[in-house]
Structure formats: C-alpha cells, structure tokens
Amino acid sequence: MTLPPLTILLAAPRGFCAGVDRAIKIVEMAIEKWGAPVYVRHEIVHNKYVVDGLRAKGAVFVEELDDCPPDRPVIFSAHGVPKAVPAEAERRRMVYVDATCPLVSKVHIEAARHAENGLQIIMIGHAGHPETIGTMGQLPDGDVLLVETEADVATVAPRDPQALAFVTQTTLSVDDTAGIVAALKARFPAIVGPHKEDICYATTNRQEAVKAAAPRADALLVVGAPNSSNSKRLVDVGARAGCAYAQLVQRAADIDFRALDGIRTLAVTAGASAPETLVTEVIDAFRARWDVTVELVETAQENVEFKVPRVLRAPA
What we know:
This protein is of the alpha/beta class. It has three domains: 5-16 and 201-298, 4-hydroxy-3-methylbut-2-enyl diphosphate reductase, catalytic domain (Cobalt-precorrin-4 Transmethylase, domain 1); 18-101, Rossmann fold (3-Layer(aba) Sandwich); 103-187, Cobalt-precorrin-4 Transmethylase, domain 1. The protein has helices spanning 18-34, 48-57, 84-91, 102-116, 130-136, 150-153, 174-187, 201-213, 229-240, 276-287, and strands at 5-12, 38-41, 59-62, 74-76, 96-98, 120-124, 144-147, 164-168, 219-223, 246-249, 265-270, 291-298. The radius of gyration is 21 Å and the shape is flat. 42% of the residues are buried. [4Fe-4S] cluster binds at residues 17, 101, 200.
C-alpha cells in the first residue's frame, strides 16, 4: 500500500536546554559519587521519561525535605526552592546539592537585591508552579506579590506604588508576559525591571521556532509533560501563530492519529525538559503511517553549557 505524503517541519531549537541537561547530570553524578539511593526534592525536571530513567539508576523522588533520611544526599530540582529549604537541610546537617538552573538563580538574586534596595517585588508567574514558589520563597511573606494575567495588574495592592520592581518566571509565554509588563508599567511608571530579560534564552528560542513552523502546518505536536510550563506555552504559541490543531503529547502512544487524518504538513517540537529520543519516537510513529519528509525549521543555534557544582566535579 502506498503511504500518503507528510512533511514534518521539525522545529529547532527544541528539547533539552542547558539547565535541564545540568540538572540531570547532577543526579547521575551524585549517584556515582555517593551510591544509591540519592534523594531528589520534587521531580528534577518535569518529564516522566527522564524521572523514570533516573529512578531506575537509584534516585528517589520526594516532595518535601521531611521525606528524606538525614544520612543520604538530597538534590534540589532545577526549578529552585524557597530559601528555607537549604537552611533546613543545613540545620539537619544533610549533604545537599542545589540543581537550580543558573538562570532561575539569577532571578532569585535579582529579587533579593531589589528587596535590599527597599523595593517590593511583583512576580509574573503561575501560582503553584515550583519555580514561582521557589522565587517567592527567597523573601519573607508579603515581600513578593504574584500576578498571572493583565487583569491581575489592576487589582494588585503594593505597599508603596513608587517602590516596586518586577521579576518573571523563566518559562512564560514571551508575548503574554510583554502584555503584563506593559500593564505594570502603565499602572506603576516607577517600577524597576530586570537588568536582563528573565524569560530564559531556551524558552524564547523554542517559542520563536514554533512561530516560524506553526503557520505552515496543518497540525502541531509538542513533545513534553503536562506539568511542564514551557511545553504548555509552546502549544499556546503554536495555536496563536495560526495552527488549527496544537497538542501536547508525552510520547508517541499519546498521539490521536484519528484527529490527524488527512494532514499533509505537521510541525513537531519539544519542551526544554523533553529528551530527543522522544521526538525520534514520535517521528518514527508517523513514518509507519505516512511517507515522511523531514524539513528542519531552525531559527537559532544554542551553545550554552552550565557547569555542575564543585562538590561533584573530579579533582583537577
């Protein structure tokens, strides 16, 4: 039987970013250094395939420090943690390694500096997301106010409208965030912004690649986890860019092929915590049903690399 033709527009950059790659290496190196089990507070990154792979090597994932025995190492996830968490680990004399993405740590430092200068912080982010919890937890309760939408800006009630700064979650929609920032500046003209954009390079690059591919496609599939903020934003970006069908899938088994019947062009990308092997799996699933031609849609090249903590590095 002759297979129908399908062009896959493969977005680039896609998949693992430097912060995710570093966090995974930290867990693997910790297991190598200290042996199993090594405990990880929260999923190291938001991807089931990655987490299951590390669990098989000896990582134990827990949600709170209280779930970790004091005599085993604990790693803090790439999303960052409130200041109270490492403080409690030190009080309990635990060995811990902080795998917070350096670009998230940059936001933490920024917020602390603004607070030292007497400014109250407004954070643009998603309530309940571990990165938002970690950033807001760098300062005492009440020192950071959360806004999620432009509508929230109208109701936020700072202590002093003349003494404000804002920071953002690193994995937000670039376009949505620009609208919220504009609303903040309109209501609070004196508000201080970050020295350099808080939304990370990887989030921005992956969204730009989707904007380039999605308008040309009948459908868009984003490989990523349902609890991955940056992956869900890629779906939103694709839909906004004009793609009539934009869906998040964790693996090839999640693809609804009935909904894709008759398509001739498919855009494929992956969130920053999704490994390339899952992208290959998705493409192979289409090769089994279509005569596939892959076209790379590349909008940027990435060569960022973050060092692992000194405690895990081999002696010079």
